Each structure stands twice: as structure tokens, then as C-alpha cells.
Amino acid sequence: MEHQHRYDEHGKQLCCTEEEKINKCADDAIQKKSTSASSCCGHDDHNEHADDDHDEHDHSQGDTNIFLRPAISFIALVVALILDHYFLSTWFQGWVRAIWYVAAYLPVGLPVLKEAVESIRNGEIFSEFLLMSIATVGAFAIGQYPEGVAVMLFYSVGEVFQMLAVKRAKLNIKTLLDQRPDEVTVVENNQAITRKAEAVNIGDIIQLKAGEKLGLDGELLSDTASFNTAALTGESKPDTKAKGETVLAGMINLNAVSQVKVTTAYTDSKLSKILELVQNASSQKAPTELFIRKFAKIYTPIVVALALAICVLPYFFVEQYVFSQWLYRALIFLVISCPCALVISIPLGYFGGIGAASRNGILFKGSNFLDSIATIQHVIMDKTGTMTEGVFKVQKTNLKPDIDEGYLLKIVNKLESQSTHPVATAIHEFVGDIDNSIVLTNVEEISGHGLKATIDGKELLVGNFKLLDKFNIPYDIDPNSIVYTVIAIAYDKKFAGFLTIADSIKEDAQTTVDALKKLGIKITMLSGDKSSVVKFVADKLGITNAFSDLLPEDKVKKVQEAKSQNNTVAFVGDGVNDAPVVALSDVGIAMGGLGSDATIETADVVIQDDKPSKIAMAINIGKQTKKIVWQNITLAFVVKAIVLILGAGGLATMWEAVFADVGVALLAILNAVRIQRMRF
């Protein structure tokens, strides 16, 4: 059956390429399925090269084996050069010398020749493999044996280092992917039973020993427990949870045996969603990456045509035309022109950026968002849950004297149980258990206002004062005179009073504002909360642009206004009503801990530990990644252009060509790997 090339939605070819080969080698080395890493790097991409039931290999053994072929060629080349230049021997001449160099060439050259033939057979004529094959076989044809071996040797060494760099980047991601345990201990009838994590049901009780990782999201049943949350947040600082609090898959229990009630299915846990995001991130390519790939596809056949022209055209213009001399120049041109430095190092740079971010608890859904976030000029953020804790506590009840406070609070608690808003949680914690004997009808959530219901034929309204205005309920207080968040209550068409609820500013909120200002980024804070509360938080943090009393559609308008000023805008939020604004912004950032699934799903970047300071860190990672990528592009084009001109004029040899190709590729790869070592 004829091979059909595979392409992604951007038209990028997914098979028969150098990048596919490098990535496949790295994946096989990580999974330890190949019979040896050396055979991997010379594998046939269109046939299985690993026997499934073969014994697994150690990583270090694989990394040693990949240098075996280049080492054999290197030793044979060094011996040949010594015999050529230092120990002139009568026997090392003619066919003996030629066979020796062929033997030195085959360990590194044969796999590449095989790749070139396979690519041509499958319709991909102009590949990196073909360029190197023509250049080295051509060098042998004109008697330049050492250069032919050296070019292929250094090309193979470069390929090995590329594979190791990609492998390292992927292992950093794989460390995150290994955080979810396959089995958990479930308590049934006072018996501890080991069960597959995916087979555990919502409501089951998990027993977690000290040092064990939690396999599913749940609610802590033990009084207290301390957890290492590094898998989710990048922070190793212990996080102490109290009974009833949410604990997430991937957290490690640090003290005594604890029990957790499962609240989310295995596939729906926060960690499962995080792993899915990371695994899919590399499929979303940055514009720079897509351009280089399209460029390489057009560039390679043009290079072959130019090399042919360099070899043939001088015949018509030069008096003393020597074919071998111009063929040599054409071959040098081919070696220099190989686009490996760009094709491998640029994706590696973006992959490294995604890996560095994930280690710090920041998830990018694609390398395109690394590019986008690097250019952000204006950060617009929600107040509650982003700059404040989003954990409310009822401070005081202010109800009318003629109201039965106990009864009113019970029906308010019952109505708020219909909502997932943090305010509802605060009221529930203050009032206590929900009275299920209370029957509510016509329950309705009015976006940006609050809740409405009917009880015993009487209307109950719980929300902000805009809700009371909407239903023409008169009240005798000025809401703006109260600094705290106020929950207004109306019952039976009358104002019944209000509750004051307080939220606290996050400890790193000030650091966030200072860091963003240092980057020269404009900051705006939006909130549906009343003006006195928003002004208090804004003044405390030094944010000059702050807007209050906003409905979800008002937030959308504010973001649209910012974008209309030709600013690149990032919006940071956590609530369900933030999803539309997150989608509208150039880069949507979601708080992944308290954040709603809808917002996390819509966002381009997810901050796992809800720390706003990670906003500036994410922008910095994007800037550093983009900087490294453009350093590599500039280095590759400048060096190649210089040596190409020298080569076409006969002023550069194969050795300069090797540096322009393999040398530049190695420098670019080492530069790309730097992002994985940086501290942000």
C-alpha cells in the first residue's frame, strides 16, 4: 500500500521528517522500548523498530549506546587522518584508503542514506536526509573522503544531541504526568481494599497513608492533614487542610493516615485535566514555529536547485571550468543550507518554555500562547478569587427588628444552597446545616444580581442592592457607605436587612502589582462588587484603574474597550461568569484551584495554585522563550549566510560547512535548553 503523508491542521507534515525522527527517538528512549538507542537513531520510520516483548533497557545504557556508531566512525576517521598526514604508508593508498574511509562512513552514513531512500519512496524527495546524502556521496565521488566522513559524522553527533535535548525536555513533562497513582486504597465495611483508581466511584472513601499520593479529588474526612502540593502548584511548601476542605489528586499526604471522600470521577479530576492540557500543548504551534516549518518546506528544494546551478552554470561563464571544483562548492552549499538548526531548536525552545512553566504551576495550552503572553501590554483582572482569597466570612447580620432572624437565615441558607458562589459557602458556614423541610419554588439565578425564589407564596430575594432595585424594593441605607461586601435580603416585597461579608487580599497580590508595573504593563481591576469594597482593595494595592458594580456584559465591554486601543490584553479570572471575557481577551488566564471548569476550559493559561504572582512569572517565561527562539533564528541565518557566500566563492571548505550546519545546530540546541534551567 502506498504511503500517505500525514499533515496537521496547519499543513505541517507529520511524517518522513527530521523532526519526527528526533521526537520518535526521544519518545522511545523515554519509554525504554527500543532494543537500543543506537538502533533507534538509525531506524526506519515507517516500520516498527522495537520488539514489544524485548527486555527493557536502562536509561543510562540507552544514552551510552546512541554514541556507539559515531564513536566507531570517529575512531576510524582519526586513524585515517593520522595515516594520511603523519605516518605516510605505501599501503594506505588507492583502493585500501578508499575502503577504509567507506568503512568509517557507513556506521553514521548508512542510516541517513536509508532515511533518504525511504523518504523518496514515500514521495518526500527534498528532505534533510537527501541534502546530507548528496553532499557526502558527492564528496566521495570527487575523492574528498575525509570531508565526506566528517560531514556525516558531525551530522550524526548533532542528531544525537538533538535527541538528548528533546528527551530531556519531554522527561520534564513526563515527571508531571507520573504524579497520578494508578491504584488507591478504598475503605469498604471497615476493610482496606486496593483498587484501580479509575474504578473508584464518587462517594467512596479513600485511605491515604503518610507519603502516599492522592489518586482522585475529594473532601477531607479527617480533622486535619498536611499535603505536599508540588505536583499541582510547583510549590513544595506544605499545605494544611481542615475537615471538609477540598483535596486534589496528585497531593502527597505528609503526616498521619487520612481519609478522603471521593467527589470527582478519575477522568474529571483537576490533575487529569492538567495532564490533558500539558499533553496537548505541543499541538498548538506558535506563529514563528509554523513559519519556520513552512519556510523549510519551500527552502529545501530551492537549495537543491541553487546547488545544481552552482555546479553547472559556471561552465557557460568561466574559461577554465573544472567540474570537480564547482561540484565541491555545490556540495559545501548543500551542507551549509541544511535547516536542522531551525527545524529542531525552535520547537525545542517552545517545548522547554512549556516545561519550565509547568514546573512552576503554570500551564500553557500551546506554544502559541507563549508568544502571545510575551507581548501583553495590559492585564485586566477580576477582584474576587484573583487578587482576593475568594473565601468569604459573614461578619455581621443587620436585619430588621420585626423579622424572625432564625427563620430568615434558614430560608436564605436554603436558597443560597442552589449557588456555587463563594458567598453561598460563607452563608452556609455561618448559618449551619440546610433545613431540607423548607420548600422553595420558582428558583431563579439572575446573572450579576443574585437569587430569587418563592416560599409559601412569598417572594425571597438574596443578592446585591441592584437586585432590590430591579424588583423595586425600597431600602433605607446607603450601600456605598459600608466597606464590606453586602448581601441584601428582601422578603414578601419588603427590605428585610443585609449581611456583611468580608474577603481578604491575597498575600502575594502586592508583589503581583509591583512586578507587572516593573514590566511596564498597565493594570485594571474589574469587579461586580460594590464601589467601596473595590476602591478599598485598589487603593491598598496601588491600582489606579478599578471598576465596580459590573455585570458580566460590562466586563466584556471593558475588555473590548482596552483592545480597541490597540493593546494586547490578558484577562485573569476564576468564576463561571468570567469565561466570556477570558475567551475575548488575547490571552485568557484562569485561576485553576478555585476556578470554575468553564473558565479553565476557555482559558489559554491556567495558574494551578491561584497565586496572582504567577501572572508576571508567566509573562516572563513567555518573554524569555521568545527571546531564545529569535536568538536561534538570528544565529542560524547570519552564520549560514556568511559561510554560504564564502562557499559559493570558493573561500570555505567542508569543515566550515560542518560548523555552519552542525555547529550552529548544537549552539542553537544548547541555547534552547537554557530555558529549562532558568529560575523565574
Automatic annotation (TrEMBL):
It catalyses: Zn(2+)(in) + ATP + H2O = Zn(2+)(out) + ADP + phosphate + H(+). Its main location: membrane. The keyword Kinase does not apply. Its EC number is 7.2.2.12. Keywords: ATP-binding, Cell membrane, Membrane, Metal-binding, Nucleotide-binding, Translocase, Transmembrane, Transmembrane helix. PROSITE patterns: ATPASE_E1_E2 (PS00154). Belongs to the cation transport ATPase (P-type) (TC 3.A.3) family. Type IB subfamily. This is P-type Zn(2+) transporter. The chain crosses the membrane at residues 66-88, 94-113, 125-143, 149-166, 298-318, 330-351, 628-648, 654-673. It comes from the Bacteria. Coiled coil: none annotated. Residues 180-279 form the P-type ATPase A domain. Pfam families: E1-E2_ATPase, Hydrolase. It is found in: Cell membrane; Membrane. The keyword Transferase does not apply. It is an enzyme of class 7 (translocase).
